[in-house]
Amino acid sequence: MGKALEPYRRIDKSGAITLSIMGIIVLFVMAYFLGLTESQSGTLKGLESNSREFAFDLPDTNIGRDLRLNLKAAIAVDNKKHQVIYSYNADQIRPVASISKILTAMIVLDNYNPDTVLTITKQDARNSSRSLFQPGDMVRAKDLLHASMLQSDNRAARALARLVAGSYEDFARNMNNMALTCGLKNTVMYEPTGLNEHNCSTAADIARLMLLAYTRYPEFARITSLKEYTFSLVNRKKQIHLVNTNRMVFSKYKVKAGKTGYIIESDYCLATILEDAEGNEVTVVVLGAPGSNTRFREARRLASYAFERI
C-alpha cells in the first residue's frame, strides 16, 4: 500500500517550480492588499495573529510518517492543547476551491442583516451553471448563507458579496484584509466563491482559519454543523432543501464546523472540526484528494489517528 501511494508524496521539478511561482504570486498580491483600506470587520477588531484561540506551532518537517494518506497536503490539530498531531506538506501553497467561502462567511456575518432580501442576477450566475438559484430569484440573506456553506452554492456567495461590498472585487479585498488580520501569510483570495484557481492557501493556514471561524463566529459553526436545512424563495412558491456536502456529519464524530471544496485544480478538499465521544476535539484539513469519497475516507483515517494520540 505504501508503494502504491508514493506518487502522492513526491513533488517533481516542474511541480516545485510551479509552487515557487505560486509563492511569489501570493507574496506580491498580499503586498498589494497591505496598501488597501483595512476591513471594517467588527468581530476581528484588535485580533492578534498569535491569539491562543487558533495558534499552533507548525513543525519544520512532516510528522506522522506512520500514516500514509492519498492526498497532497494535510494537517490535524489538537484544539485543546494547540498541538499539531499530524502534518504533511502543511505549508505548501495550493488552490483551496470553496474552502475560500470560510472567509466569505466571516465577512458576511460581520456585515449583513439576515432578513435582507436579495435578487440573484445574471452576473451572479455567470460561469456558474450548477446552482440552486436562477436569475430573478429573491432570497433572504440568511438562506443564501446556508446555501453557500452547506451546498457551496456559488451564486449565493456572489450575491452575498455584492450585498456586503458592492462588487466581487471589493469583497475580495476584504477577504485579503481579513486574512492579513488573522496572520494568514500564505493565503490570498481573488473572488468569494473559490472557482478561481488562484484562491490559494495552505493546510496550516486553513486550520487556523477554521479554528478562528469556529471560535469567533457561532453562527458559522451552527450552520456548517447542520445535516440539512430547508427554506422557501421569497418571490415564488418553491422550497429548497439543502444537504450538507460535508459527509462527516453522518460519521461517528460530532461535526462542530466544516467546509468542503472542489475544482479541477485543487482536487477534493475538506476542512472540519470534529469531536469524539470523550469530548476531545481536533481540526482536520485534507487538500488534494483524488476523489470525493477518498477525501472523506482519508479525513476519517486522519481523525482516528489524531484522536488515538490524544
Topology diagram in text:
Elements: H1 2-5, H2 13-34, E1 73-78, E2 83-88, E3 94-95, H3 101-111, E4 117-119, H4 122-125, E5 138-140, H5 141-150, H6 154-165, H7 168-181, E6 200-201, H8 203-216, H9 218-224, E7 228-232, E8 239-243, E9 254-263, E10 267-275, E11 281-289, H10 292-309
Antiparallel strand pairs: 1-2, 1-11, 3-6, 4-5, 7-8, 9-10, 10-11
Helix pairs in contact: 3-6, 5-6, 6-7
Describe the model.
The chain is an alpha+beta fold. The two termini are 26 Å apart. The protein has ten helices and eleven strands. The strands form four sheets. The protein has a five-stranded antiparallel sheet with strand order 2-1-11-10-9, sandwiched between helices. The protein has a two-stranded antiparallel sheet with strand order 3-6. It has one domain: Beta-lactamase (3-Layer(aba) Sandwich), CATH 3.40.710.
